[in-house]
Write a structure and sequence with these properties.
Blueprint: H1 19-34, H2 39-47, H3 54-69, H4 71-81, H5 91-106, H6 112-127, H7 129-139, H8 147-151, H9 157-164, H10 169-178, H11 181-191, E1 197-201, H12 208-217, E2 223-224, E3 231-234, H13 243-247, E4 251-253, H14 256-259, E5 272-276, H15 282-290, E6 296-301, H16 304-317, E7 323-326, E8 338-344, H17 359-362, H18 365-383, E9 386-396, H19 405-414, E10 418-420, H20 422-426, E11 437-438, E12 443-445, H21 447-450, E13 455-462
Parallel strand pairs: 5-6, 5-8, 6-7, 8-9
Antiparallel strand pairs: 1-3, 1-4, 2-3, 9-13, 10-13, 11-12, 12-13
Helix pairs in contact: 1-2, 1-3, 1-5, 3-5, 4-5, 5-6, 5-7, 6-7, 9-10, 9-11, 10-11
């Protein structure tokens, strides 16, 4: 009798090192593009999986932000590869194709055949054999330099720049009209680049130098920034969230550009500070951290859950509780008078595109007029709480002049009892001016100068 043969072992094919990264990126993009979620929140949640390696996480992050930053360009290339010149396909196939085209055009270290093979397999699983065959045909016609075909023939420099960096033409034109096409290119290019992760050291708990010494001992990889003084960063790619430092109340995640804003209040002992539209309290907590002894802070927001978040944040940081008021300031509630007021107004968030690139596809030019009307109402209301000689600081996370200096110009026309004090304040904040564009009334910080996001700030003094 022949000897019994051992049964063959079934060997499962190992997934490529990028597989789980691609999978997470696909799930995240579906929820961002089709579901309306925010990329930074969804990606952070999806990366918190035990099975993911650091390579998986880097791959997913690169794909999600790469696709979102270059979405217009990618879609134009994809459309050109279809027989009808249209992207009339299932959302799943569309996002798989976008990821594949991004890899082919921008990830030169990944062989094209490998990208095609992996994404066709993904398409077969997610969308079916027919659509996988369609995608295969499109991808095999795609080349690394196809992005160039999208802008070839566009003679308008603004439209050409907008298409190249996948920004709305109206946004590029608004920036170009206010400044120059060269500055617009610098801003849009910066929006499409990765940025470091910035944090604010709680200087009520420890000095920045003491924190750096502690973090270096624990090999955390922080670096000091030139300014502002309490800002530290992780370089892009050095990764990880500093959970220990965060939970200990030593650190708060906050973009560098927004950390400048509370300094424009020029806080002094005995000040009474009113923080209007305080939201979840990131800047409110910073005010408490940098305030001299004897400063009283009152925070106002119309949403109770945001005030609750502020109180939790103060507890986490080990800071004293402050007065909070749930109110809509456009209703002019009786809050009293204050000599230092911060109005961080609702805005388009056009300055945060670098962190959340999906914003540039959701924001419509028509939305801006609604926002500016609200901003005007808030400024008018805030003026009533400002004592003579006091400061009213207006800020936004926008880099569009229509939400910034244009609003201040109208405000000063309606309220001649105020005058711009931005230059006066900046003269005592030497670290600010070299980093900002000085507008007529305020200062705009751009992504290309902060190596972060963009913001606007203007200090207004009420005449005595």
């Amino acid at each position: 009798m022949p000897e019994d043969k051992e049964p063959k072992k079934i060997v499962k094919r190992k997934k490529s090192p990028e597989y789980w990264g691609r999978r997470v990126a696909f799930e995240t993009l579906n929820r961002v593009i089709q579901g309306g979620g925010f990329s930074n929140i969804l990606l952070a949640s999806n990366l918190n999986r035990e099975r993911l390696t650091e390579n998986d996480k880097r791959s997913a992050t690169n794909l999600v932000y790469g696709v979102l930053r270059n979405l217009t360009l990618i879609d134009e290339v994809f459309r050109a590869k279809t027989a009808r010149g249209a992207l009339d396909m299932s959302p799943a196939l569309l996002n798989i194709g976008r990821m594949a085209i991004y890899e082919i055009m921008f990830m030169v270290n990944v062989p094209q055949y490998a990208s095609v093979s992996e994404y066709v397999t993904m398409a077969r699983r997610e969308a079916g054999a027919a659509e996988a065959g369609f995608l295969n045909a499109c991808l095999r016609k795609t080349r690394r330099n196809d992005w160039n075909s999208v802008i070839t023939g566009i003679t308008d420099p603004v439209e050409r720049t907008a298409k190249l960096y996948s920004h709305p033409v109206w946004m590029a034109r608004a920036l170009s009209d206010a400044y120059s096409i060269e500055k617009t290119k610098q801003i849009l290019r910066a929006n499409n680049n990765p940025q470091p992760s910035y944090f604010r050291v709680n200087v009520k708990r420890m000095s920045v130098d003491d924190f750096m010494a502690a973090s270096e001992y624990n090999h955390r990889g922080f670096e000091k920034t030139e300014s502002p003084r309490a800002c530290v960063m992780f370089q892009h790619g050095r990764g990880g969230f500093p959970a220990r430092e965060y939970e200990s109340g030593w650190l708060t995640p906050q973009d560098r550009s927004t950390q400048f804003i509370p300094y424009y209040l020029a806080l002094e002992k005995g000040d009474r500070v009113l923080d209007l539209c305080c939201g979840s309290g990131i800047k409110t907590a910073q005010i408490v951290e940098i305030a001299p002894e004897g400063v009283e802070v009152t925070a106002v927001d119309r949403f109770s859950h945001k005030l609750a978040s502020l109180e939790n944040e103060l507890d986490r940081l080990g800071l004293p509780r402050i007065a909070t008021v749930e109110a809509d300031i456009t209703d002019r509630p009786d809050l009293g008078e204050f000599n230092k007021i911060l109005l961080d107004a609702p805005c388009s968030n056009s300055g945060t595109v670098r962190r959340r690139p999906e914003i540039k596809y959701r924001l419509r030019e028509a939305d801006i007029s609604e926002l500016t009307a609200v901003q005007d109402k808030l400024l008018d209301a805030a003026s009533a709480y400002t004592l003579p000689g006091g400061l009213l600081v207006y800020s936004t996370c926008s880099i569009l002049p229509i939400e910034n200096d244009c609003r201040i110009e109208g405000f000063l026309y309606r309220h001649p009892e105020f005058e711009s004090a931005t230059s006066e304040i900046e003269s005592s904040l030497r670290f600010v001016s070299p980093r900002s564009h000085s507008d007529k009334y305020g200062a705009t910080f751009y992504p290309n100068t902060t190596n972060g996001c963009g913001t606007y700030v203007c200090a207004l003094r009420k005449k005595r």
